[in-house]
Structure formats: structure tokens, C-alpha cells
Write a structure and sequence with these properties.
six-stranded mixed sheet
Length: 451
């Protein structure tokens, strides 16, 4: 991937459709364009649509490709920051391929995955967080996933990180300024300044920890909520699954052990994607196939975000199910009493219902509350990469705060904050050298004008 190359690619899915878009971008984009159109490209206006004919190799007859709408964008006022052209052609995959071949012959290169966004990142049109937001938006599978991705794409996360980064730069500038004072006999100013930095760090740790919590929640919202429906055989698990997804997905019968494999169903609820999994009934059995299904049930439990533990006879049985309790661990769990219409038992249940007759809105509300998804606050960041970086930042700032409070070794604290800044810059896609530039700029900005 060479960002200074002139590249081209199909920007829409490679299927037959009414229209397709081919994108051309790079320093030589307009030179390439000149070789496939019979008009003076230098006289064309930017950001204006032109109806034009395209020719392979510049040949008027046998080289004709298509008639299209074409828009030119002059650097740096384009998505990539380079000169760019978007061709809106007829949506035949063959026409698109012929155009891409013609652009390649004229001097462009076929783009690799994500290369247009890589050009935009290199040219300062977006930071790494915004680039990730574009990819997340494309792959969103629910309305809430779109909201989460758009929050990153909007640049709000970048502003948040920049604001918190500036706070840390002020802290480290203060520590660097007073680093020599720790060996001085005059301790009053030094101790007072150290306490200010510690107080500031304590607030910043809390802010970053809150971001981490919201990031974990946003990742869960984006990926979808995995719900395992678990219980003994013949207690109404499959009926509950069908009611939740509003589809007859699972086979329902009065024969215990009917469900022997995981049955899955999806539904978007309140903008969130829920993935419900009906599991094989938990019981002791000599049936080899049923045992395999039960083992899969335990694996599903371990992977789930929340457990719906189902019973039509109360939950006293749970005390003897050590393997089940161990698999559930600390996961959120809702005890669902079923078959209310058939004389089911509600003892010990968090909610008692009939899957066939009742409105399941209260159960959905309880799931959202258990997962802390009933709040409508904006999520923070998105992606496992971002989550890991933020967790590491929290760890480093915790270490710096503890060092100041417990040992007063501000040189160690300063170095630890610097490591946190390195992580922040890496999160944003900037190099480690940026940290030192930021620190020096903040430190010397405190000097008088002319010094």
C-alpha cells in the first residue's frame, strides 16, 4: 500500500444494479482521466457533475466504455485529500471491470482494501478513530450500531481524547517544572504543586475509567447482545425463543430432550440486535448425542452476555447444579418462570409469564436493565483495539497517581504519565515522538513572550 500512488476501485458492491460508482484518487488522477475522455480536463470545474463518455485507450469507436456522470474534486478538498474523480456508471459488473481496466492502463493502480481511507488518514483528512468509525458504520447490523459508529465518525471522540490529553500535558508539565524541587530544602511550593497534580490525576483516572466502561458497553451494543436460554428439559425454552423472535424457529414438543443442538434466532429490539440461543436441556443423560448438545449448552452459556434461566417448577433445582452455576459465574441472569397459563410455579422467579399468551415487553425491559442498556447516553469508543488501549491508559494513570500519593517520586510519576500519553497518541494513530513534542510545547508555553 503506497499512499502516493494513483488508485482506482469499485466503491459499490460488485453486483448487477441500476448504478455503480468507480472512484479514482491520487496525485495523477486528472492525468489518468485525460486519457479516457475526449475533452480538456483542465477546463472542467471542480465539484460539478458532467455527463460524459468514457473510452478505453482514448479510442472513439472500439474503445467506448459507457456514458456516465462524473464529478472531479481538487486536492485537498476531497475525501482522500488527493485529486479525485467519482464515476457514476451503469451498474453492470462488466462495465465496471472494463472501466477499471482502462484506468489501470492509463496509469492508475487497483486499490487495496481501505486504501482510500488510508490516503485520507495520511493527508490529515481524518484521524485513526474516524477511519475506524467509517469501517464500523459500513458493518453496522442494527440501528444502535449505526448510532455508535456515527458517534465515532462525528469526531466527538477525537475532541474528547484531545481535551483529556491536554489535561495530562498540563500535569506532566507541572511535574517536569518541579522535578528538581524534590531535592530542595524549600518544600512548601513543591508539596502544594504535587497535591494539585495528584488531585487532577484522580479526576482524570475517573474520567478514563468511565470512558472504558462506556466503551465496553458500546462494543457489546455494536456486536449485538448474546442471550442464552437455559434450563432443564421441557420447561418451555423453545417456546420462549419462538416468542422472543416472533418466529417458529425451534421445534416445540412435550418430549424431554427435543432440543439437542443450539437453535439461534435474531431480532432487533429498541434499536439493538439481540441474538437468542435456545440450548439443550441441562440434565444427566447416557444419550451420547444429547450429551454433545448439553456440552454445547455450557459453551453457549460461557459466551453469552446474559442468561435467561427458565423453569416451570421453581428454581430449587439450581442449588444442585454446580457445573451450571460455575458456567454462569458472574454473568447477569434472569430467572424466568414459565407456563403461567398451564399452572407453572413462580417461586424464586424474577419474572413469571406465559410465552404463548403474554406480552414479553417486561422481560425485554428487564434484560436491558440487567445489562445497563436501558440508558440512552451516548457511547464512547468502539472496537477491541480502542478498548485495550483505554484499559492500558487507565492502568498507567492509576500507577502515576499511586506513585505521587505514596512515594512522592515525581520523576517516576512523570515517566508513567508520559507512557500514558504514548498510548493516547497510538490510539489516535500518532507516533511516540508526538508525545515529547506535546510535552515540550506545553512546558515552554508557560514562558514569557520573548524568552
Amino acid at each position: 500500500m503506497l499512499v502516493f500512488d494513483t488508485i482506482c476501485a469499485l466503491a459499490t458492491p460488485p453486483y448487477r444494479s441500476a448504478l455503480a460508482i468507480v472512484r479514482l484518487s491520487g496525485p495523477k488522477a486528472f492525468d489518468v482521466l485525460q486519457k479516457i475522455v475526449h475533452r480538456d480536463v483542465s477546463k472542467l470545474e471542480m465539484d460539478r457533475a458532467y455527463l460524459t463518455k468514457l473510452y478505453r485507450g482514448g479510442k472513439l469507436k472500439e474503445g467506448y466504455i459507457d456514458e456516465c456522470l462524473m464529478v472531479l474534486y481538487k486536492a485537498p478538498k476531497s475525501y482522500t485529500g488527493f485529486d479525485s474523480v467519482d464515476f457514476s456508471i451503469h451498474g453492470s459488473p462488466i462495465v465496471a471491470e472494463v472501466l477499471l481496466a482502462a484506468l489501470s492502463e492509463a496509469g492508475a493502480r487497483r486499490a487495496e482494501r481501505g486504501e482510500f481511507s488510508a490516503q485520507a488518514y495520511f493527508n490529515g483528512k481524518m484521524d485513526l478513530l474516524k477511519a475506524q468509525g467509517i469501517n464500523d458504520l459500513i458493518h453496522a447490523t442494527s440501528r444502535r450500531a449505526v448510532e455508535v459508529a456515527n458517534h465515532t465518525l462525528s469526531g466527538e471522540n477525537t475532541k474528547l481524547v484531545q481535551r483529556l490529553k491536554e489535561n495530562l500535558l498540563e500535569d506532566i508539565a507541572s511535574l517536569e517544572y518541579y522535578v528538581e524541587d524534590q531535592y530542595s530544602d524549600e518544600k512548601d511550593d513543591y508539596d502544594e504543586e504535587l497535591e494539585k497534580v495528584a488531585s487532577s490525576l484522580e479526576k482524570e483516572v475517573a474520567q478514563w475509567r468511565d470512558i472504558l466502561d462506556r466503551t465496553r458497553r458500546s462494543n457489546r451494543e455494536y456486536q449485538g447482545i448474546r442471550v442464552a436460554i437455559v434450563g432443564e428439559p421441557n420447561v418451555g425454552k423453545s417456546t420462549l425463543l419462538n416468542a422472543l423472535i416472533k418466529e417458529d424457529k425451534a421445534i416445540v414438543s412435550s418430549i424431554p430432550g427435543t432440543t439437542r443442538d443450539i437453535v439461534e434466532g435474531e431480532r432487533e429490539i429498541d434499536g439493538l440486535r439481540f441474538m437468542f440461543k435456545d440450548t439443550a436441556g441441562i440434565r444427566k443423560t447416557d444419550d451420547e448425542i444429547e450429551s454433545i448438545g448439553i456440552n454445547k449448552s455450557f459453551e453457549t452459556i460461557r459466551q453469552a452476555d446474559i442468561i435467561l434461566l427458565v423453569s416451570d417448577s421453581g428454581f430449587a433445582f439450581l442449588s444442585g447444579e454446580k457445573d451450571l452455576l460455575q458456567a454462569i459465574g458472574e454473568k447477569p441472569m434472569i430467572k424466568v418462570g414459565t407456563k403461567r397459563d398451564l399452572g407453572g410455579v413462580s417461586q424464586g422467579a424474577d419474572i413469571f409469564l406465559s410465552s404463548l399468551q403474554d406480552d414479553l415487553t417486561p422481560l425485554i425491559a428487564l434484560i436491558l436493565k440487567k445489562l445497563d442498556l436501558d440508558k440512552k447516553e451516548e457511547s464512547a469508543f468502539l472496537g477491541k483495539r480502542e478498548e485495550d488501549y483505554i484499559a492500558s491508559i487507565v492502568t498507567k494513570l492509576d500507577e502515576a497517581f499511586s506513585t505521587i500519593k505514596e512515594t512522592h517520586q515525581i520523576d517516576i510519576a512523570s515517566d508513567t504519565i508520559r507512557q500514558a500519553l504514548d498510548l493516547i497518541n497510538a490510539l489516535m494513530g500518532e507516533g511516540a515522538t508526538q508525545s515529547m513534542e506535546d510535552i515540550y510545547q506545553t512546558l515552554f508555553s508557560r514562558f514569557c513572550l520573548g524568552k
